[in-house]
Structures are given as C-alpha cells and as structure tokens.
Amino acid sequence: MRHTLAEVKRSYGPEKAWAEMQGDLPCYLIYRPISFRVALPFLWLGVPVMAMTLLSLVIALAMLLMALRGGEHAYLWVAGLGFTYHVMDCVDGNMARTLGRTSRLGAILDGTIDMSFWCLLLLSLGILVQGQGGGLWGEHAVTASLGLGLLLLLNRKTRDNFTAQNVQTAYFQAEIPERIAWPDKLLMAVVGLEFVYVFAIALGGLAGRLDAVLLGIAVYVVAMFAGALGLTFASAARLDRESGDRDPH
Question: Given a cut of 60, is residue 185 above it in pLDDT?
Fold first, then answer.
C-alpha cells in the first residue's frame, strides 16, 4: 500500500499533538513537520517500525563516537546527528500510528533509547568541551555532563513513578483546553528547550565557546530538575489531601 503524506499527518491526532506541545514544543514546531515527509519512503519500502526505533539508537551511539573521533569539526557531527535523531525519533511513531501497529514493547524500547540519547548527548558535549581545553570547566567537563545525565534520569524516574501510581501526569493536562492560560504557555515554552541543545552546540562550537553552552545547559537542567520535582511532590501532596477529604474514616 502506497501511503500518502495526508495519511501520515492524520495519524498524528490532536491528543498526541497536545501532549507534544506541552512537553516538547520545539519538537512539535521543528522536528515533527520534517518527520512526516521523512516517514513516507520508509513506509513505501515496508521498513519495520522496530528497525526504525533501533536506527535511532545507532544514531545516538554514532554521536558519541564522533565526539571522540570527529576531529576539528566534531561538534558539527554531534549537532547534526542529534538533529537527525530528533527527526527519526518522530518517524517511528509516525509509521506506527499510520500502520496501526503501536505496541507496548515498542513504546518501552523507544523510551529507553530516548533517555540513552539524552545522556549520550550530554556526555558528547562534555567530551567536546574537554577537547577544547575545558574552558570554564577545567578538567571536570565530562564529570559535569555525567552528573547532568544523572539528574535527567532521576527526574524521569520520579515522574514515571507518579504516573504509574496515579494514572495521570504530575503537571501536564490530559484534556485539550478551550483556551491556554498564559502560565501554561510559559511552561510549554520553557519545558522543551532541551530540543534546541543541538543548535546551541553548533553555534557554540563555531564560536569556540562550548564551555559556555555546557554551563547554560547545566543551569537549565538543574532548574528543570528542581522545578519538576517540586511540581511532582506538590501534585502528590494534593492528591493525598483530596483522598483524605473523601475518606469516611
């Protein structure tokens, strides 16, 4: 069956779009539109969705390899492969929804590879900074990048625990509102900024200031970690209070 671009776009329903707007706004604005067209030839060729998911892992690993062996322009390789990863990470979802072949295994594998990518991207940046002499970080750029990866994993683990226990997210709205309040718009604009790391790496590398890029990302990651945990704990406490109010005892 020769699928069309219109089919691929229709598979990306309003619920999925709303979820992506809340947590991954740059992905919604940049990578998702590109991925619709990229998905088409793979659909025509009958490439398995799982193969596309695993291809994303290969791209993430290649990014680390290029950080180590990419030479003078390693930062461009890292940024380019990171950009490619973001697009391909959308492509497998597009294909699965278009074909009606979504699976729990695929979703779990995709999430695992996704977290691996973010840790590998941060590690790659640390290696690039170290390769430029360390700058503001001295000899600690790689150590700092590994620490940031740990914060990302802790953040995701806390969020996933909340969702598993309460069958809802801690700070995203499941239902599409008629009107988006300005605090929600601000949150949407801030939460997904990690999707522009690849642009910052490219520009920082050109300017010879990847150490400043790592510093900016570090501030962002720490702030998001503290904010996300605060919102998650506050949501858990609110649910406890509501449950207590309904408790007949």
Answer: yes
The whole-number average pLDDT for the span 74-86 is: 97
User: In degrees rounded to 5, what are phi and psi of residue 7?
Assistant: -65, -45
Mean pLDDT score, 221-226: 91
CB atoms within 10 A of CB 145: 27
* Whole-angstrom distance, CA of residue 23 vs CA of residue 193: 9
Residue-range domain boundaries for the chain: 5-246
CA angle 25–29–35, rounded 5-degree value: 115
Position 41 pLDDT exceeds 90: yes
- The tokens of 89 are what? 């990470």
Does the predicted model carry a pTM greater than 0.70? yes
Cite the beta strand spans of the chain per DSSP E. none
SS in 3 state form for 213-244?
HHHHHHHHHHHHHHHHHHHHHHHHHHHHHHHH
Helix (H) or strand (E) holding 20: helix 14-23
> What is the assigned CATH class of domain 5-246?
mainly alpha
- Angle of helix 210-246 relative to helix 141-166, nearest 10 degrees, comes to 20
Give the largest Cα separation in the chain, rounded: 69
